[in-house]
User: Fold this.
Amino acid sequence: MDHKDRFIDLSLTEADLVAAGGHVLAAYVLQPAEGQDFLTTVAQFAAESGRGTQVPLGTEDEFSRNLDVIAYQAEAASGLVKLAFPLALFDFNVTDGGASISSFLNLLVGNTQGMAEIAAVKLHDFHLPEGFLTTFAGPATTIARLWRHLGRDEVAGGMIVGAILKPKLGLRPEGLAEAAYQFWRGGDLVENDQPQGNQSFAPLAETLPLMADALKRAQDETGSGKVFSMNISCDDPVEMETRAAMALEAFADMPESLAFHVDAYLAGPMALAHARRRFGGHFLGAHRAGHAAVTSPRSDRGYSAFVLTKIARLLGASGIHTGTMGFGRMEGDEADRPIACMIAQDSAAGPYFAQEWHGMARSAAIVSGGINALRLPSFLENLGHSNFILAAGGGAFGHVDGPEAGALSLRQAEACWLERADPIAFAVDHPEFKRAFHSFESDADIIQPGWRRVFSPETNNL
Ligand code: RUB
Assistant:
């Protein structure tokens, strides 16, 4: 039998597949290797995705053949290929019946990524039927908990002014705690950067009590709740639990102030699922250092940032790094907006599929990567709201007047956008925002080219 007859069925409609709820649907852009016919390659791709080989098998029976992965859309001009994976192919936990992202990724972007017949294939979107989606845990805690601790509205509490401690490595315990304290004086949340762990110059046993003390002082002095989000990414779940236990002990009298975060890409699904299971009462952030190795728009393999982000919500991340949509220093553009929207809605439009979340708790966007007070208003204009967590590094600690002023400048930038004010005019009465122009001069020259005429010795306004 020709592979094309068995593994491609263009008479299947997506509407029928979605309505029946028996398949995971996946959308790829595929380019065959040189000299390969498109449809033949699509059939081989579908065969490899399910049965895992191209050769005739004496071991197959009618039951296993009914579990074929079928290509129901294949467009040679655009390279768009959509596959339908029968639900029975997926792995479910022995302990609680939950589905597994490792198994899911294995089927959707496993060995097929290395097929010799394929020059490039990238997963851009997927659709889960209700019966499958609801077996994932989803977030246990949401941004509402942080807003409550900060004394804000719990539905739309506005931007949580957060920072990622910089320099990302090299500060000793006293330096880390002092930097965090200074930021908390004006801001809400501090997370340690992705590679910060238990380095020899800043062992957790010394750092955590100092962090807790710094946070308590900032809370007492400002009268506002503050949050420390601790990176607990590591290789071993026991080690992760040990680190989290140390933090829980240091923050024992203020558990509301403690959040955790885990790298959803480098530490991976197991780390995120484990952290969700063990510490679900705390806000759980998903960061994603290294993800561009597979998600970059310049890569035509792997999967997209949209896919990574959708997976993180399924695994239970309360907040997910979603990038800065071209307004920061990392790759991305304005069209990435659906990534941040999709995790925070009950029904969400992806690049290829509309997804119902069937009551799964929402995740919040964590916006990070080169954002400062000057870049924030246009970022907010593109996003259309400010109900997210900002995690500025250089934008907070690079302010010429220090981290407290950096935090205030970011808060003022949100206020500037909420008032739809002209940033230069707004800065005249908001000193920390104004000093952000001097802190990030090259950005100011591009974003607000007239600023030097207004804030100059001649106008007596520096
Ligand atoms: C932010 C930071 C972030 C990365 C990536 O610091 O270190 O971890 O930029 O963020 P800065 P994301 O504000 O100095 O860039 O994964 O959200 O793209």
